[in-house]
Amino acid sequence: MAGDGSDQRALQYEQTLMYGRYTQELGVYAKEEAARLRESGQRRSVSDRSRTLDLLEYDKGRCAKCRICTVRCQKFLISRVGEDWIFLILLGLLMALVSWVVDFCIAICLQAQKWMYGGLDSNVFLQYLAWVTYPVVLITFSAGFTQILAPQAVGSGIPEMKTILRGVVLKEYLTFKTFVAKVIGLTCALGSGMPLGKEGPFVHIASLCAALLSKFMSLFGGIYEEPWTKNESRNIEMLAAACAVGVGCCFAAPIGGVLFSIEVTSTFFAVRNYWRGFFAATFSAFIFRVLAVWNRDEETITALFKTRFRLDFPFDLQELPAFAVIGIASGFGGALFVYLNRLIVQFIRKQKAINRFLMKKRLLYPALVTLLVSTLTFPPGFGQFMAGKLTQKESLVTLLDNRTWAKQGIAEEFDYIGHSQAWKHPQVNVFVTLVLFIVMKFWMSALATTIPVPCGAFMPVFVIGAAFGRLVGESMAAWFPDGINTDGTIYPIVPGGYAVVGAAALSGAVTHTVSTAVIVFELTGQISHILPVMIAVILANAVAQSLQPSLYDSIIRIKKLPYLPELGWGHHEKYNIRVEDIMVRDVRYITLNCCYRDLHNVLLTGHLKTLALVESAESMILLGSIERAQLQSLLSQQLGRPRRLEYIRERALAEKKRMSVVSNPGSEDGSQRVSQEVRFQISTEESTFSPVRPVPQKPLKPALKRSSVVERPTEIPTSPHDNSGIALKNLFCASPDAEGLEEPPPSFKSFSGDDGDVEDDMTIREIAEWEEMQLDEQVNFNNCKIDPAPFQLVERTSLHKTHTIFSLLGLDHAYVTSIGRLIGVVSLKELRKAIEGSVTVKGVKVRPPLASFRDSGTSSSENEATELHKLWDRHKSMSLPREHTPSESDEKSQ
Amino acid sequence: MAGDGSDQRALQYEQTLMYGRYTQELGVYAKEEAARLRESGQRRSVSDRSRTLDLLEYDKGRCAKCRICTVRCQKFLISRVGEDWIFLILLGLLMALVSWVVDFCIAICLQAQKWMYGGLDSNVFLQYLAWVTYPVVLITFSAGFTQILAPQAVGSGIPEMKTILRGVVLKEYLTFKTFVAKVIGLTCALGSGMPLGKEGPFVHIASLCAALLSKFMSLFGGIYEEPWTKNESRNIEMLAAACAVGVGCCFAAPIGGVLFSIEVTSTFFAVRNYWRGFFAATFSAFIFRVLAVWNRDEETITALFKTRFRLDFPFDLQELPAFAVIGIASGFGGALFVYLNRLIVQFIRKQKAINRFLMKKRLLYPALVTLLVSTLTFPPGFGQFMAGKLTQKESLVTLLDNRTWAKQGIAEEFDYIGHSQAWKHPQVNVFVTLVLFIVMKFWMSALATTIPVPCGAFMPVFVIGAAFGRLVGESMAAWFPDGINTDGTIYPIVPGGYAVVGAAALSGAVTHTVSTAVIVFELTGQISHILPVMIAVILANAVAQSLQPSLYDSIIRIKKLPYLPELGWGHHEKYNIRVEDIMVRDVRYITLNCCYRDLHNVLLTGHLKTLALVESAESMILLGSIERAQLQSLLSQQLGRPRRLEYIRERALAEKKRMSVVSNPGSEDGSQRVSQEVRFQISTEESTFSPVRPVPQKPLKPALKRSSVVERPTEIPTSPHDNSGIALKNLFCASPDAEGLEEPPPSFKSFSGDDGDVEDDMTIREIAEWEEMQLDEQVNFNNCKIDPAPFQLVERTSLHKTHTIFSLLGLDHAYVTSIGRLIGVVSLKELRKAIEGSVTVKGVKVRPPLASFRDSGTSSSENEATELHKLWDRHKSMSLPREHTPSESDEKSQ
């Protein structure tokens, strides 16, 4: 069993290695880190401001006006720096440079391989060794480097961006380390010549760039110093623009980039962000292409894979069925690709024997896969039948060629010049070459994208699609050598056009996007095939979406990222589920009049990012929510060294007083407590009753009674529940015992750790006593940031409405209130469970416990009204005993 | 003064005539109409289902299986009919047909004008008469026809669609009448040759089509019969797709159509609707172009305004500054256009003398404008200097020509063949022609779009932009006759490319969209100028957006449509405004235990679409919201004839009983009332106290006391408020007097109107008495649809959050609750006021009354906590007197 456990752990590790996996702990850590950063940032801004003021004061004597002018200019410049458009320009510039440099390095890597391979043409074995070793080394280096520096850089990055843009904080995915790992890892991975793509990683790299640039620009002030709530939404907008830049500078396709990034990352898109994406992506694409011109690669700015199809008669109406066939077949192909990719990952994960072996040498899996793929593409070997010596880019250029390969009659028209030679095999038909290319590349790409290096799948899929389109086009050209149009003028069929259609259709099917059509137009610089492309892409999407999730959603599921799945249409049962069926009734909360001990306990037992603040455990009326970090700082202030030193000073003073006058012990402590209580403007109820895990219904009524007992102590006989005070105290004392006392929480450790001071003459025992005393004090929330309007839902809100609100507002959790009383909390997790329960398991509808009785009623309207009354009755009995209490007590007093 | 009043009214009318104006009454009427339709639809669906069941029962004897099979097939077909994609295909097909037919008719109209003009070339005066009369007649007919049939069809329709997609119901804009008026009006208006566009109206027409198609398909069942909440969101999605279809089939530009419609109509866009737009727009564009091929206008499917620029070297990098200049100038031009358009409308509205004159003959304004414009374009007159004889389409084709006009040296290269001749004037330079064309068309278009006919401004602006681009391009070509590139190969400048850039930039500036770039690519079929176009469009947008609202937003303001303006970034003061500052504290509500009289009064005094349902006037705890229509039906059920006849029958029965046995009068009535009360599961409090206009704070405490009085009548001395029961009754009796008694409300009139029945032997007085009696009964909400979770906000929600939630969820209003108690309501109106108050008046910040004190505090966090306590104190004193009441009463009882 122990071996099994370590196996399990090893498997877990392997999974992280394979795909990286989101863990809650990391997220929480990141959040706290973020809070720390934010606070330090705010502190700095204050000091900056005071510095400016100092400057003004200091220089008043000399040439004050001049100085003021300078300061103003500086201020103006600084405020300008914070403007969106400067940020976007910088982002675009940076990404264009990164993209160009990466492309340049990849080109050099590929050339080096070719040179090695070409130089060793005397010996086939040496050639093979060179052909194979080079990519294996590069991929292994890439995998190792990424693994060591930042495992988050593995994979495409689009699933993570989707999750981040959804509002979930995955801060560890946006660090400088990740940036370095991703850029270098990607360059090496693509330089190896494996069928991997650049697009997905570039979306991630652009987001990393934006996050880092944002941090960098916050040094200069401006918008970046503003309250974090605003800054957070601004950051999300900037990240959305960055995604567009990523695609835009990768393909020099600004419009397609914006649309693709919207489709791939957003659920609801704010149209006001539209221009940001366009602006940054256009600028980026422009610089990217200008760099090519500047480097003398191109004479002027043109498309990346420029085609030269004729403009007058791009295609005939009668060719449309062939385009439709490409679309439908691509749809099936896309779904198959996603399925195959998932299958490989799951297979590798399941095979324990393989895993144990691979785990030992972590880099073995990438090396083995690379070896297999590069062996198969070895040009003198099997590679000769599948144009193995062409790089991805060269393949695409040849596939989009506007000449027809299969035309037999006119030999002089097609000489297989340049790279196109690779497709021509002396013994084998070009059709066989194409089919082999498609089949081999298909599984190779699906396999290669599971390697734990920074890589995407868009480009390989794009090339496969182009090859498939070419195949259909060549077949059509062979079938109708004179073209289809019978009106006299002969317009032959252009197989290159079919390749364009196929590329857009297959990549659209795999990613579930329509905007690949636009990317294709921008990549080729020709829009003449717009209608065939659109038809094929839409058909491919229709087929693929009904069969499989998109590649990115599939990876999100594999990685178990905290993402909210889409709510499909036409699933009636979901309208029957209400929030009350899925909410967590056991809410962690703090009360307005709780003591620090309660705070401590709540912080110890739960890991929630925000905690609900209620009026009291009896009324449960929701007042707001407080962040965990705020509470932690409250607690550390209360138990921190400065306070303790102050206490020591006060004690010494009191000691002195006692020396001089007759003392009355305890008054000091009492007055302190009174002054503490004065800070609370609501302190009528003195109960310290605040259970960590409240039983939702039972304690309400007795608790209420007890509170009235405090006010009228003589009238009502003490109920048995009144003893609960001591019992609960015991419970509280017990709970830290069970979890925390043996090993005090880190925050406390640090306070008792640095005690080696001169003035600090307290023993550890005294400190513990003092801390115990401090913990019994009431919490002072005055210096605490409270969100006064956390998101609330009513318990009868439908699942559909909840889902919409969560996705629209990017919520992480929402409190469920009933007549102002906190009765539960719904987080993404519950919502996801509820949706997946009712959506993915189609046959076996996982029904929530309360949904069934609603089906029995025939007329929904009548039902609703009755239920409303029932609901109301329940609340009355539960929550409004106040109205009944007086009459009860009156009866007793009479 | 009376004359002034009628003037005012006349002016109002004229404004409606000029632009159509949204009135609240119409909206309310439409909503009620919609509710009626919905109900009847539901009734029909139920009857359909029962019919099917009947059929099954009836035919069981014969060949039951066969029948069941048929029914199932029918069901399957019917369910298929409800599928989205069938709807979208039908919509696309229909719109393509409409677009093609409209284009065809417009072409015939324009040809007829040309033919008339050409046939009369012997006499210039006759020629002038023909040239001028033709458009005047057409425009006048269009204006008159639209005015008579459906004034809502006037104008572009995009502002209205923007408002409707925002969630505001403008049902009168989506009727069959409007459809007919819009299509015929548009055809005539465009057939006149005035500088008007087809795009905006087509967005409206497509939406009309979708709405009508949706209604039509609901006859077949399927999704269209489902609960209205779902159907409503579905309708909005379909309308969004329809907008895309409108643009798509107008320009044969599916991608640009989708993007343009998103930019123009949405604030937040649900990405899951993306495919709908693409699907429908592609299908529509496809059919639209296929119709052209079928009609032998084209040989195959190509772009609408196909260009033939060279592919190899579309433009040089050094030309980019010129493109940037076009962009910036277009930005200023676009802002000027919007300003000019608004100025003309406001000028016409203000001039009372003109108005009085124009008002008398309503069609005079269109006729005068048309006369002016067509006089100026008369080809032998001033028109010869501005290519006046070209239609809009011809102008655009010539402007996008890939030949250079200004090149002097090579005469044979440019012969001014075809329509291009129009630009060549023997005496005048082509530059002068172009400048005159731009200047004249600019104000003509701005003027023409104010004519009350169905028309858009996109196409005229597009043409002006193309002319401006051409002007810059020709200047560049004249300046650099050999091109700019110095690398040996001579690539001359292509002024047509500049025209493309100019067209995209100016139309983008006027509409504040970036997607005009995509439309341009799809219109011309060439994407080679992507970077210049993108740069120019973005610059134009940047300039125009900082100067003026978009044309559509400008019209929304002129028409005073209920639209929520955008919240700009960087306006700090808005984060200081809370919902409590802007909410309406005087909420109309009904209580759970109110009587029909209260319902009646509430319905009489307010015009709100939904009413809040609270537990009682004392607690104000929000239970849900009820639609006005529901309440009306409740009231009419209570006072309706069937109930009265039943009462008569019962009375007759009682009479009979009284004849036979000794009677105890009143018991009948009493038992009825008891049974009435049994329906209420909550009826502990018997107070009928439910003021229509509650003073928010005062009545709470006394009212509470009074309710406790009911339960303990002996203990507490009666407070002066106890007499309020009678006083309030008087108030209630008085309020209908003031407003409604002299003229009973229409719903009641109808009940007392059709009394001429045989059995109905009650006198009018008896009826009035009976009605009074009925009105005193408690309302039975059992058959009433109650929304159990209306949208709630906390009073401290910031304006920013409120705005986001309103725009995201398309809310019309939200209730503001504090600890479950209804304390106010915020509707679009208040929100708009708050935003406009703090945004548009930049210098004079209109500050809400409560926002100021929040600025005084230095540390916001401290402030918040203290305020929370304050808030809490206030609530305690306000809302929790229940806890204190017992102690008070106890003191008294002791």
Strand order of the largest sheet of chain A: 2-3-4-5
Radius of gyration of chain A, in angstroms, nearest whole number: 34 Å
Low-confidence sequence ranges of chain A = 1-30, 44-56, 223-230, 409-414, 569-573, 665-758, 838-894
Estimated share of beta-strand residues of chain A: under 5%
For the secondary structure, the number of strands of chain A is 8
Q: What class, by secondary structure content of chain A? A: mainly alpha
Mean pLDDT of chain A: 72
Account of the 3D structure:
The structure is a homodimer of 894-residue chains. The longest helix of chain A is centred in the first third of the chain and has 36 residues. A four-stranded mixed sheet of chain A has the order 2-3-4-5. In chain A, strands 6-7-8 form a three-stranded mixed sheet. Chain A is elongated. The N terminus and C terminus of chain A are likely disordered. Chain A is built from 35 helices and eight strands. In chain A, strand 3 and strand 4 form a beta hairpin. The first copy, chain A, is mainly alpha-helical and 894 residues long. At the A-B interface, helix 10, strand 1, helix 11, helix 19 and helix 20 of A face helix 10, strand 1, helix 11, helix 19 and helix 20 of B. Strand 1 of chain A pairs antiparallel with strand 1 of chain B. Chains A, B: It catalyses: thiocyanate(in) = thiocyanate(out). Chains A, B: This is Chloride channel protein 2. Chains A, B: Homodimer. Interacts with auxiliary subunit HEPACAM. Chains A, B: Keywords: CBS domain, Cell membrane, Cell projection, Chloride, Chloride channel, Ion channel, Ion transport, Membrane, Phosphoprotein, Postsynaptic cell membrane, Repeat, Synapse, Transmembrane, Transmembrane helix, Transport, Voltage-gated channel. Chains A, B: One of its GO terms (molecular function) is voltage-gated chloride channel activity.
